[in-house]
Amino acid sequence: MKKVILIKYGELTTKKDNRNFFIRTLRKNILSKLSNFDFEIVDDYYRMFIIPSSDEDIDLIVENLKNIFGIHEIVVAFMSEDISENNIKEMSLKIMKDLDFKTFKVETKRSDKTYPIKSMDMNNIIGSHILKNIDCNVDVHMPDTILNVEIRKEAVYIYNTSIPGLGGYPVGTLGRGLLMLSGGIDSPVAGYLTIKRGVELYYLYFESRPHTSIEARNKVISLARKLEKYNSKGKLLVVNFTKIQEAIYKNLDPSYLITIMRRKMYTIAEKLAKRYNCLAIINGESIGQVASQTLSSILSVNDVTNYPILRPLCSFDKLDIIDISKKIDTYDISILPYEDCCTVFVPKHPVINPNLKHIYEEESKFDFEPLIQEAVKTVEVVDLEEKISDLL
Q1: Euclidean distance between CA atoms 339 and 351, whole angstroms
Q2: Residue ranges for the chain with pLDDT beneath 70
Q3: Are 173 and 204 a contacting pair, CB within 8 Å?
Q4: Which CATH number among 3.40.50.300, 3.30.70.260, 3.30.70.270, 3.40.50.620 corresponds to the domain 176-391?
Q5: Mind giving me the DSSP string for 161-215?
Q6: What is the pTM of this model?
Q7: Is the dihedral of CA 343, 346, 349, 354 positive or negative?
């Protein structure tokens, strides 16, 4: 017998006619993430199997699989092409002898219904063989360990533990989105949750140098790289927002600074989303968390675009968002004290319920179109695989 990694699909099983497309995309993503390993991959409608050339790679492969969306469960199983009753009994006994337990349970599944021994009968056969050779007891309700036996046409797979996968859909199955990535806590979490739904991400960062620092940019690059652990070859688009932000600050109503700034950001984001074939714009807004995230503020900002805007965190509490940020290892980066362009020009009394008529009047005081065109034309694409020191 030899070790293989068995992958269970989970939510992909609900896809019916599109299931094969989701499985093919998952396979492609796995091949990409495991490109440094030598292995064979086999899949069908119900399972995927990774067969490493060396058992020494199994633990590292499993660690990589934990970061791939579309996987419900990861199992390191013992496989044998000999599916005879006697071989299954001996394999099971050998596996159980290496475990520390007092009580156990056997669960057999037959994907091959032509196999001559029914699942319940096989449970009894294997269980009896283990009881005769190991000092232990059967407990079908709360056993110390469960021995899983999957009998298929080509082989039998036996295992006693499984590792939860991330679930969700394989990246790329739902198209590409553009994440407005600031240096804060929320937007990386919004990105993570969007990737989980099968959306490939590009990242959009607005910087306002010299008002923002190179450290602020590097902070965002680091956050994007954290998300790349789950994403698929995303690009970071850096927009020089300085002239637009200064024009708003010098010429318009200070209380409307944030609202109008956000409107210009969305105007630029829509143009870049179309350029890079993104089907939606994503941000980290949560309803009511700050003045710019009231429903009336969101309505005023959305007024500049008909593009779909996704807000995965709209109903999340801040503590829930922080918990996820710690789980995906972005929290410590997000709290680094480097201001982004959304924080350097914050007015003392930002408007909470902006009026669209007043916004139009304010925006008519200055012609922003040339600055917007310049910002779009001069957008910088950052290679997330380069060293940060090489980008300075």
Answers
A1: 21
A2: 12-15, 289-292, 341-348, 386-392
A3: no
A4: 3.40.50.620
A5: --EEEEESB-TTTT-EEEEE--SSSHHHHHHHHHHHBT-EEEEEEEE-TTTS-HH
A6: 0.89
A7: negative
